[in-house]
User: What shape does this take?
Amino acid sequence: EAQVTQNPRYLITVTGKKLTVTCSQNMNHEYMSWYRQDPGLGLRQIYYSMNVEVTDKGDVPEGYKVSRKEKRNFPLILESPSPNQTSLYFCASSLSLAGEGTQYFGPGTRLLVL
Amino acid sequence: DAKTTQPTSMDCAEGRAANLPCNHSTISGNEYVYWYRQIHSQGPQYIIHGLKNNETNEMASLIITEDRKSSTLILPHATLRDTAVYYCIVRASGGSYIPTFGRGTSLIVHP
Assistant: This one.
């Protein structure tokens, strides 16, 4: 089954404790991205990757890192989480930017930073 | 990518057609119109997309005006499970891509 998976789905942590949210897709998609969703602010893109070893900042990249060592995986790293990073996070992938690019979203990761 | 404008909320009776409008007056010639929906806090789900012509699939129909400055998503027979936030976005083919989802339209389908 074609899908985007994220882990963990729920996470409670404390300020400053490094964490990683994993994202994996099994559709051989080139393009992957991370969004955060906050009440009243909609979906905002954090980082995106156009292919292996190619990443770029989205609208709200501060406080986040990403890596794309393999095509299928695109982890989101919070080196020193802060309470303002409490949010609902979604990973997404699409086949390519070179044509029509329907995005497929993961189920979301709800993060609470105390 | 062009910005879009959608009504904040709409409601519809179950079994009736739901028509969700979207304005994208600054759309460029190579930009597609995409519709997604998000049920509660699940990941957004792709519905349909189009460039110039009207499109239909098993979920919905997309009507794009001739000048492409607006579009309408039509759910022909809305059900309670169609209650969701619907996002209209436009995006160009190729190049870097930072999509703007905006706040979407909250559609409530009532019995």
Summary: The interface with chain B takes residues 4, 31, 35, 37, 40, 42-45, 48, 50, 56, 58-59, 88, 90, 92, 97-108, 110 of chain A (CB under 8 Å).
